[in-house]
Amino acid sequence: MSYSDAVSSSAKAAAPRKGFKLVLLGDASVGKSSILLRFLHNKFSEEIATTVGAAFNTKTIESKGRQVKFEIWDTAGQERFRSLAPMYYRGASAAIVVYDQTNAVTFDRAQEWVREVMSTSTNPNIVIALAANKADMESKQQVPWEKAERFAQQQGLFLLDTSAMTGKNVLRLFEGIAELLPDEPFMPQQRGLQVLTTPTTTNATAATDQKASARSRCC
Which residue ranges traverse the bilayer (predicted)? Predict the structure, then answer.
């Protein structure tokens, strides 16, 4: 066996069997799915299907000499799906709360999301990141950076200025979370949401009568 083969075999052996559950939260059209698309495939699409319930994906990255496998739930931002969100963030190791810098209301809602996760998550050490998305639309910015920075400092959040369109800080967002995670994923005492397969993209809903909505634009 050559040296390169040995290194490859060692890397495969070191691949994590258990993943860190990460949930994306925030209002509709703030760019959660676009951030995820950029992270997973380094792509951006002007037209992206509205998430119904939640979509599941996985990706493994290297952080501080170890392999970190993310099991990512991209949740729907529409109000009618709000009650489903706790199903996904309870027991999560990390959460990314996204807001749109060009829409002040989404920042107010992001603050509500952060407080809700902190008060109801079953993981007392959950890592929470705040993504100030749509940094490429600086001329339309409605949320001063200082305001977001002040809130992040008060709540102990990992804050980044992101753009799914240009890719600005998207990879850094996930890398930064990985650096803050413990050695092992959080394992809740009670049985939470479990995934038996690893689909590329799936839609999960608790209500069987929910139908997919029309496509929407977001970045």
Answer: none
Map tokens 């390169």 to a residue: 4
pLDDT for residue 208: 37
The 8-class DSSP code of residue 51 comes to P
Which one of 3.20.20.70, 1.10.443.10, 3.20.20.150, 3.40.50.300 gives the CATH number of domain 16-204?
A: 3.40.50.300
Residue with tokens 């509205």: 50
Backbone torsions φ then ψ of 97, nearest 5 degrees: -100, 120
CA distance 2 to 153: 50
Q: What is the pTM of this model?
A: 0.79
Bridge partners of 133, per DSSP, are: 100
Q: Hunting for tokens 């749509």 — which residue is that?
A: 134
Cα separation, 199 vs 60, in Å, equals 14
Report the alpha-carbon distance of residue 130 to residue 136 in Å, rounded: 17
pLDDT 10s digits, 27-80 = 999 999 999 999 999 999 987 767 666 789 999 999 989 999 999 999 886 655
Tally Cβ neighbours within 10 Å of residue 198. Answer: 12
pLDDT for 66 equals: 94
Beta strands in 34-81 (DSSP E): 47-48, 54-63, 66-75
What is the distance between the alpha carbons of residues 207 and 202, in angstroms, rounded to a whole number?
Answer: 15
pLDDT of the residue at 206: 38
Rounded CA-CA distance 131/145 in Å is 11
Strand 66-75 versus strand 20-25 pairing type: parallel
